[in-house]
Amino acid sequence: MTTLRTSPNIAGLEPSATVAVAALARELRARGRDIIDLSAGEPDFDTPAFVRDAAIHAINQGATRYTGAPGIQPLREAIARDLARRTGRETDPNGVVVTAGAKQALFNACFVLFGPGDRVLFPAPYWTSYPEILRLARAEPVPVHGDPARGFKVTPAHLDAAADERTRGLILNSPCNPTGAVYTRDELAAIDRWAAERGIWILSDEIYSRICFTADAAPSLLELPEASLDRCVIIDGASKTFAMTGWRIGFSYSSPELARHMAALQSHITTAAATPSQYAALAAYRAEGEHAAELRAMSDTFQRRRDRVVALFRELLPGTEFVYPEGAFYLFFRVDGFFSGEVDSSVALCRKLIEDAGVALVPGSAFGDDRFVRLSFAASEDTLAEGIRRIARTLAPGRAGGTG
């Protein structure tokens, strides 16, 4: 049998660890195992009925053909209005490119802006796809480690220590996956000034912006009057905010000139996002009154779950370090104190938890820090409570008898 010879384009490319864990959990469930999946990076809510109905109506009206590469104009306009309302900044629909998920928006931006020889920084821990997307663009990914006491958030001093004359970009994620950390407006302003002085692009991944527990929404780079679209791209989408992960709708917002380049690239990759999905997203971004309240209620539910998870950890796993989540729906907790024998890494510990406790988590090594593990609280409170009790019984026998 001949060995498959692949292109250097994918040399070293690793599959998504988060997707792999979710697939393993589904496989074990199919075999009859009682598995609590706390690995998922998606809301557990159904897509709201008014959004589903909009897609059905669009299909029945014949909206099943290609759209232009940047998306249907009404959706681009609705996204621009939503950004203007949230940030207080004048927006241009021509700067919006609708994509097949926020991941494609990020890929488009990286592929258009960066190439061989370019170094791109991003705070660590980081979302698993950042380094892989940058490698596909032939750029060099550079993780930057922040202060654990500050939720691993980076400062200009951290960035300065990692930058050099080849540094061309910075990917910033707030609220952060996997830590749940949220950058304040002042912290964003300091980073923006640092990037402006060095002519560095900021790709601001704001996909969790409206799942924020410190305000109605996390501060956006667009809120800064000095933030220039000549050197920043906003990445966002419908997946997390509107419980629309499978609909695959994301977007980028940038200068119209850059948007044209990204739309041209996309025209050769996917052409455009799925047409019925675009009409579903249009209903979501236009939501008002009771529909808007329904969407906000999902964020409120995540906050209640966050509070329950934190309380259970403090009761059943006292002394276990974790990043207190201010947004998103993850708890990033430290596990190297539980390493022993063959369980000597976050991967081995997660394997032990899924095999012995029936709980699926994502190893911190997937996010650049092997000392930690990520737990998703996109699950019911009862499921979360049972999952954490199982974790505690497996990692710290004798501590898990609390009432939680």
Q: What is this structure, in a nutshell?
A:
The chain is of the alpha/beta class and 404 residues long. It has helices at residues 17-30, 49-60, 73-87, 102-113, 129-136, 156-162, 185-198, 256-267, 275-285, 289-316, 346-357, 381-395, and strands at 36-37, 96-99, 119-124, 140-145, 167-173, 201-205, 232-237, 250-253, 322-323, 330-334, 359-360, 362-363, 372-376.
Name given to the CATH architecture of the largest domain = 3-Layer(aba) Sandwich
How many helices? The count is: 12
- What is the makeup of the main sheet? 7 strands, mixed
| Span between termini | 56 Å
Give helix % range: 25-40%
**Globular, elongated, flat, extended or rod-shaped: what is the shape?**
globular
Average pLDDT confidence is 94
Could you give the count of β-strands? 13
Q: What oligomeric state best describes the polypeptide chains here?
A: single chain
Strand content: 5-15%
Structural class: alpha/beta
Assign the CATH superfamily of the largest domain: Type I PLP-dependent aspartate aminotransferase-like (Major domain)
Order of helical and strand elements: HEHHEHEHEHEHEEEHHHEEHEEEH
List the helices and strands and how they pair.
Elements lengths: L16 H14 L5 E2 L11 H12 L12 H15 L8 E4 L2 H12 L5 E6 L4 H8 L3 E6 L10 H7 L4 E7 L11 H14 L2 E5 L26 E6 L12 E4 L2 H12 L7 H11 L3 H28 L5 E2 L6 E5 L11 H12 L1 E2 L1 E2 L8 E5 L4 H15 L9
Parallel strand pairs: 1-11, 3-4, 3-5, 5-6, 6-7
Antiparallel strand pairs: 2-8, 7-8, 9-10, 10-13, 12-13
